[in-house]
Design a protein that fits this description.
Structural class: alpha/beta
Oligomer: single chain
Largest sheet: 9 strands, mixed
CATH class of the largest domain: Alpha Beta
Number of domains: 3
Strand order of the largest sheet: 15-23-22-16-17-21-18-20-19
Number of strands: 23
Radius of gyration: 23 Å
Length: 574
């Protein structure tokens, strides 16, 4: 049984393929098309390249697809949007002239989604089906059915979705039940997006900048945010819309009332980041953590479950996920590595397999995210020879990792391209830029001269799982780089470039079972330097998506200050 999951037509379009209940391929369209945050305006909204990759990886044609699982229900989304905006238009008669164009825009959106369905159905065999999955259930399914938990409380929290912005669910066996949901604009994602815009960042693509700016500030505006965002008795978020401007068809933003009460003004994109901006980020971050923890505690008390699964774009907030793990009272936590819309491709497909088709046996657990393109040495050599590059070839992986570890120990920065590409926004040792963490200067060099980004952005500390608790506080979130940990007091001086804030570290615990090559490199670096920890950041430059192919890796290498490129069993040095 082949089920193709499709998601993310607003942004972060992706496709995933499951065969007999197991995920065999998944990739975001942006990584193949080289366009960040691809959405509805691209190629009719369908992730064509991602679909093609999934079919090629499984070596099947579209006619072998038994079902296409779509990540939301377009008609319900359209009716919810119209109902929401109609009620606003009636309350504010002076805005009535703005509503008809938005109504037309909503119809065009629905038309585009129906076109997506027709395109898919036209290529299916006569036995194939196209099934629409409620958006929050697709989010929840992406986490629950991937978690390995037999039972769990499930929470999905995002921005706008299908006009439901959060959901509380319960998973048991093959069943996933929706208990309650919050309607837009009662949205944590909307709040965080609006704050991100007020800080002069991109409201749709720069949430992570607000998150990493937060530790550099103090939560000065907590009184305002406590009035702006709260949790109701059922455990769902409630937003005070007095603090927001909600234009028809536009992006919500913080209102004059907010800035008056906080005694702030929005930051211009080219304006220097001042302490007040850092304090705004810290305040929003703290309140989001408090609200998400309160939601989780209430849901735990109601369900009696010991396990929690998190999904939705807000679940990509590392500090918030760590706060839930630490303070919400659950014994075990699983956060979907591709928690945003991209992950709904997996969720929609698994939901159809279990909930719609009634397959009771749970055969899949997401132990790794290496679901994307991979290239053998013959394909890599073809690219290197075509580019007329000088390179070294190593007959064994041990010899390659030994030489790369030696280069890293000498202070070199290395591009690392090996194995199947990661699914999700985090680089986990397949498409990475690596460096030694033993000097603080390395963090500044990577930010300023390699990544060309803000000075407050931290890097991941990758460590073999056997050594993780020797250096850092234990956390289940470290497996997929989803949380923020603390360094042990006696270890901070060993890896100063990995530490930020008050002893905080982004930790990626690397398993020999799921990424043997990267695990070997970390171990060999430990032998060479005495510290089995490397700085790891995504292999991308110029605001582009992470490199996917050998040619993209070579281009990134020669257009940057990276010293060496380890690609397959080849090593290129400048």
């Amino acid at each position: 049984m082949n089920i193709l999951g499709i998601s993310g037509q607003e942004r972060d379009a992706a496709a995933a393929l499951i065969q007999d209940g197991r995920v065999v391929a998944a990739i975001e369209e942006e990584k193949l098309a080289r366009i960040r945050h691809i959405g509805m305006n691209y190629a009719g909204g369908l992730p064509f390249r991602a679909i093609e990759f999934c079919l090629e990886r499984a070596r099947i044609g579209f006619d072998k697809i038994d079902c296409v699982a779509y990540y939301l229900e377009p008609h319900k989304r359209f009716h919810r949007e119209i109902a929401f905006n109609s009620s606003r238009a009636i309350k504010a008669a002076d805005n009535l002239e703005e509503f008809p164009p938005y109504f037309v825009g909503g119809l065009n959106d629905l038309k585009q989604r129906l076109k997506t369905r027709r395109l898919a159905e036209a290529r299916l065999s006569k036995h194939g089906e196209f099934i629409e999955v409620p958006h929050q259930l697709a989010h929840g399914a992406s986490a629950f059915y991937s978690s390995g938990f037999e039972r769990a409380a499930v929470i999905s929290v995002d921005n706008k979705g299908d006009m439901t912005s959060a959901a509380l669910m319960t998973g048991s066996g093959e069943q996933l039940r929706l208990d309650a949901d919050a309607q837009f604009p009662n949205s944590i994602g909307m709040v965080y997006s609006a704050v991100t815009a007020a800080l002069g960042f991109d409201a749709d693509g720069d949430w992570h900048k607000t998150m990493w700016l937060a530790p550099t500030g103090k939560p000065e505006f907590m009184e305002v945010f406590a009035d702006l965002l709260r949790v109701d008795d059922y455990g769902l978020p409630v937003v005070n819309t007095d603090y927001f401007d909600l234009p028809f068809g536009g992006t919500p933003s913080l209102s004059a009332h907010f800035f008056e009460r906080a005694a702030l003004a929005p930051r211009g994109k080219d304006e220097t980041i001042a302490q007040k901006h850092r304090n705004l980020a810290a305040s929003a971050q703290r309140r989001v953590e408090e609200v998400l923890c309160e939601m989780a505690r209430i849901h735990r008390a109601r369900t009696g479950e010991d396990n929690l699964c998190l999904a939705g774009g807000v679940a990509l907030n590392s500090f918030a996920s760590s706060a839930v793990e630490r303070d919400a009272g659950f014994k075990r936590l699983f956060v979907q590595p591709a928690a945003g819309n991209a992950g709904c491709s997996i969720g929609a497909a698994l939901y159809v397999w279990h909930q719609v088709m009634g397959n009771r046996e749970r055969v899949y657990e997401m132990k790794h995210a290496f679901l994307g393109p991979q290239f053998n040495d013959e394909a890599i050599k073809g690219v290197l020879d075509n580019c007329k590059l000088a390179y070294e070839y190593f007959l064994t992986e041990d010899k390659l990792t030994g030489e790369v570890a030696r280069q890293l120990a000498q202070g070199k920065i290395v591009g690392w391209f090996r194995g199947a590409m990661e699914f999700g926004p985090r680089s986990l040792g397949a498409r990475s830029i690596l460096a030694s963490p033993t000097t603080e200067m390395m963090r500044d060099n990577l930010n300023a001269f390699i990544k060309h980004r803000e000075e407050f952005r931290p890097f991941c500390a990758a460590v073999p799982e056997e050594h993780a608790e020797e250096f850092f506080e234990a956390s289940a979130l470290n497996n997929f780089l989803q949380g923020v940990s603390r360094i042990k007091e006696n270890k901070q001086q060993l890896i100063p470039a990995a530490v930020f804030g008050d002893g905080l570290v982004r930790v990626h615990s690397v398993s020999r079972k799921t990424n043997a090559s990267f695990w070997k490199l970390l171990s060999k670096f430990g032998e060479a330097s005495g510290v089995p920890v490397l700085l790891n950041t995504s292999f991308n430059l110029f605001g582009e998506p992470v490199v996917s192919t050998p040619r993209e890796a070579v281009r990134g290498f020669y257009c940057s200050g990276i010293d060496c490129l380890a690609i397959g069993n080849f090593l290129i040095k400048k």
